[in-house]
Write a structure and sequence with these properties.
The longest helix has 34 residues. The chain has 9 helices and 12 strands. By secondary structure, it is α+β, with helices and mostly antiparallel strands. One of its GO terms (biological process) is actin cytoskeleton organization. One of its GO terms (molecular function) is actin filament binding. Keywords: Actin capping, Actin-binding.
C-alpha cells in the first residue's frame, strides 16, 4: 500500500494511473491469494484467486470491479471485488446454470470443513477455500439438446394421436383419403411442417380433430414452442481446487513472509497434485529474499473420503516444511559461506597497518630485493 500511494503521488492524472496499474493489480491479487473481508459477515474472510472469478461467458470486465464466488456455507454466492480499493461488496446468489449439483456441493462442503480446521491449526492468520473445477468427464448440459428432445417427443405423440384418430373415422368422411393410413400420413405431415417452421403447434383433442376433418370449426389449444433462451441445469464435477494462504507481517523487525498452497484433487484419477510457493523478505540494513516452489503428488485410495484427502494434504505440507528446514540449516554452512570473501592461508585478516612485518609486505616494499 505504501508503494501504491507513493507511485500515485508521482503521476499527475489519477485516471491515467488507474488505467495503467489496473491489469497489474488484477494479476497480483489473484496470484497472491489476496485475503479480503466478507461483504456481509463480520470476521469472515474470503480469498481472491484465479479460479474464484465468476465465469461470465469467458469474458472479464475491463473495469476495476470483478465478480468472484464464495462456495462456503452451503449456498454459493458471488460478490463484487474492487481491485483498486481491495474491498468486497454486493453479495448475490448464483444463477442455477453457474452452480453445481447437490452431490458436487456435498463433496465440496466436506472438504472445506476439514480444510478450515487444518488451516486454523497450522497457519497463523491462514485462510482457505475449496472450488469446484471444470471436469472433462462432466460436460456442461446443453439446453438446446434438451429442447430438441422435447420437440421430438411432442412430434411423436402428435403423429400417434393423428394415426389413431384416422383409423377410427369412417371411410366416407375422409373426403379424398382412400385409406385411414393416408389420412394419418397427411396429419403427420402437417404436424411435422408446423414444428419445423417454429410456429406454435396446434394440438387438439380427438373430438376437435374429428370435427376439423368434417369441416366443422373446433376450438384449438395452442402449445407454445421452446423459448429462445433456456436456463441450463446445474453442472457436475469431481475435480476440486484446494487453496490456502498464510501471511506473516513483522515490520518492526523488518521481515514478512507468505505461504501459498494449491492442490488439485481429481477423484477419477485418484490423485492430489500440490504446489507450495513460499516468499520471505528480510530487509534490515539490506535486502534478502527467499522465493521457492515445492511440488508434490499424492496417490489416493479408490473413492477416498474427505478425511483421507486432507490427511494426504497434511503429509504433503509436512514434506514441504521439512524441505524448508533442511534448506535453512544449510544456509550458514553452504550458501552464505559461498558469498563471503575467502580468508588467506593463515585464516586471519591481514592488518595492513603492519604489512611491513609480513614477507609479502617486505617484498612489496623492496626488502626482498635488498636481502638478495
Amino acid at each position: 500500500n505504501d508503494v501504491f500511494s507513493d507511485i500515485r503521488l508521482l503521476v499527475s492524472s489519477d485516471a491515467a494511473f488507474e488505467s495503467a496499474i489496473l491489469p497489474a493489480l488484477k494479476q497480483y491479487n489473484k496470484e497472491q491469494f489476496t485475503v479480503v473481508d466478507h461483504p456481509t459477515e463480520r470476521g469472515k474472510k474470503v480469498l481472491i484467486t484465479p479460479v474464484s472469478v465468476l465465469d461470465a461467458e469467458g469474458e472479464e470486465g475491463d473495469g476495476a470491479e470483478e465478480r468472484h464466488v464464495d462456495w462456503r456455507g452451503g449456498e454459493a454466492k458471488s460478490f463484487a471485488f474492487d481491485h483498486m480499493k481491495a474491498t468486497a461488496f454486493d453479495l448475490a446468489p448464483l444463477p442455477s446454470h453457474q452452480t453445481y449439483d447437490s452431490e458436487t456441493l456435498s463433496l465440496l462442503s466436506s472438504l472445506d470443513k476439514l480444510l478450515v480446521g487444518y488451516t486454523e491449526n497450522h497457519y497463523s492468520d491462514g485462510v482457505c477455500a475449496v472450488y469446484p473445477l471444470r471436469d472433462a468427464n462432466y460436460p456442461d448440459p446443453d439446453p438446446e439438446a434438451a429442447d430438441e428432445d422435447k420437440t421430438e417427443e411432442v412430434k411423436e405423440v402428435g403423429q400417434a394421436e393423428a394415426g389413431e384418430l384416422a383409423q377410427d373415422l369412417p371411410a366416407e368422411e375422409t373426403e379424398g383419403a382412400e385409406t385411414a393410413a393416408e389420412t394419418a400420413e397427411a396429419a403427420s405431415s402437417v404436424l411435422h411442417e408446423g414444428v419445423e417452421e417454429g410456429e406454435p403447434m396446434k394440438v387438439g383433442t380427438p373430438a376437435a380433430a374429428e370435427a376439423a376433418l368434417e369441416g366443422e370449426p373446433a376450438q384449438e389449444e395452442e402449445v407454445q414452442g421452446p423459448e429462445e433462451k433456456k436456463e441450463r441445469p446445474p453442472r457436475a464435477s469431481r475435480v476440486f481446487g484446494l487453496y490456502l494462504v498464510g501471511n506473516k507481517y513483522n515490520p518492526s523487525n523488518y521481515w514478512t513472509g507468505r505461504w501459498r498452497s494449491t492442490y488439485v484433487l481429481d477423484y477419477a484419477k485418484g490423485t492430489l497434485e500440490g504446489t507450495a510457493k513460499i516468499n520471505i523478505h528480510y530487509y534490515e540494513q539490506g535486502n534478502v529474499q527467499l522465493s521457492t516452489t515445492l511440488h508434490s503428488s499424492s496417490p489416493l485410495p479408490p473413492s477416498p473420503t474427505a478425511e483421507q484427502i486432507i490427511f494426504a494434504l497434511k503429509s504433503s505440507e509436512s514434506t514441504f516444511s521439512t524441505s524448508l528446514s533442511t534448506t535453512y540449516s544449510q544456509l550458514s554452512d553452504e550458501s552464505f559461506r559461498g558469498l563471503r570473501r575467502a580468508l588467506p592461508k593463515t585464516r586471519s585478516k591481514i592488518d595492513w597497518s603492519k604489512a611491513g612485518g609480513y614477507r609479502l609486505g617486505l617484498e612489496l616494499g623492496g626488502g626482498g630485493a635488498a636481502a638478495a
